[in-house]
Amino acid sequence: MFGKSRQGYYKQSKKAEKITLNEQIVLEGVRAxxxxxxxxxxxxxxxxxxxxxxxxxxxxxxxxxxxFDLLRENNMLVRKRKRKFFTTNSHHWLRKxxxxxxxxxxxxxxxxxxxxxTYIKISDDKALYLYLITDAYSQKIVGWxxxxxxxxxxxxxxxxxxxxxxxxxxxxxxxxSDRGVQYCSHKYVERLNKNxxxxxxxxxxxxxxxxxxxxxxxxLKEEWLNDLNRKSLSSGRTELNEIIVIYNTYRPHQSLKxxxxxxxxxxxxxxxxTERVVGKMYEY
Length: 284
Fold this sequence. Notes:
By secondary structure, the protein is an alpha/beta fold. Helix content is 41%, strand content 14%.
């Protein structure tokens, strides 16, 4: 009556059922990745890369745009958040240092570490502070500490972790940060000098000169820190340790051709086969 055969009708019906089943498998795959990553805030590109690896065993393929539409239809897309607390006090009498990384080329790990402080909001007027040291070439977090204060001692804890984890692996290393009082303090500078690490700092009011560290802060806050367990400092440290392991060993980085920081830093993998230029300055 409608110009369709019985065979064609059931074939179309089975095709629709298969598509629905495949979509459910994809959504379950996304949920599994987010559970393993301990965040629901990874974007479509990272999910698409990891999903295609996971779905190979069941012969399912999905394009990036199709995945985007599927997540949007199921209210599973990431939404942006707002901030902010202040962590930097550069108005102090301690010595500041020049910027040594303008148009700096780095070709291996442990040539340049970048440092910064971010916060985890507990209430309207309280926060925990996260001190981070990141290798600029591999983007691996090599040192960190979580504290309820902005004292230099907390920054030194992160620095000592970075040095301990890379002992004997760096030569002519540069440590780059903003001009915060923590990084200019006697204790912090003493540790750097003791390990023959050169000191570099941004110009006044120029956070773009520490863009790698600022970018890392944004990633951690957007994908994990805003959902971190804030019941106590100790529980926050435990959960944060798991997050940093995931960031270093599981999260694919687009700038690393979807490799992980640990593979680049510890396992000798090449970053895009060449060098990385940081601190690039433009003339208008």
